[in-house]
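Researcher: Here's a chain I'd like modeled. Treat it as a single chain, no partners, no ligands.
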Amino acid sequence: RIRIEDIRNDEWFARNYTPVKNFECEDVNLDDVFAAFTDPE
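Model: Modeled as a single isolated chain. Structure tokens:
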């Protein structure tokens, strides 16, 4: 059986792979529902 770790390390599965970029979320006051859902991003 193949393991997930083996798949991740296999060269074939890594082609055209772009890792997810971490991003910082802005602090949004969740008490203001309108502001939380109208973020321009």
